[in-house]
Amino acid sequence: MSTAESFTPVLNDLGSVGAGTSLWDVSKGLYLRLTCTASTRTIGTPFMGTHRDPNSPFGADVQDPITAVGTGLPVGTVVFVEVKNTSGGAVTVTWPAIVKGAPANPATANRRIHMFVFDGTNLVLANQAADIAN
Fold it and tell me: How far is residue 5 from each of residues 8, 29, 30, measured CA to CA in Å?
């Protein structure tokens, strides 16, 4: 990986999503975009790719949590999460326990961009934009 690539927050656009849970694979990009079309959405605990479980008789894929030894993000990694509200009303996003701070939900027809810094254990909210019209 070149120096430029290591600082580029590649976009991981999950597209339009209804109610349910979005999985957050940070190995696919450090900028997560989620377009909420329902009034509620949960963001799952972030993970760093998947690998084959050598102990599984079926060769199942397992997710590597970013806090696991050898699979974590480097301390100081900046991660962005953009939440767009196209639900036609209020939206409530449930964040995983690894997120510390109080990310705000975007108003109807708006989006918010949240910036987090990984401290070795948690993603700490460092900044968030005010509502931005979609």
Answer: 5, 11, 11
CA distances from 112 to 16, 22, 130 (A): 15, 17, 6
Phi, psi of 52 (to 5 degrees): -75, 135
Residue 81 lies in a domain: yes
pLDDT digits (tens, 9 = 90+) for 49-93: 776 677 766 766 666 667 655 567 788 889 999 999 999 999 999
User: Of the candidates 93, 80, 110, 103, which has an alpha carbon nearest to the alpha carbon of residue 11?
Assistant: 80
Residue 112 counted as domain residue: yes
| Tokens encoding 126 | 């460092």
Would you say residue 10 has pLDDT above 70? yes
Does residue 24 form part of some domain? yes
Q: Which of 17, 64, 62 is nearest to 43 (CA)?
A: 17
Domain residues for the domain of 129 are 3-49+59-133
- Asked whether the beta carbons of 134 and 84 are under 8 A apart, the reply is yes
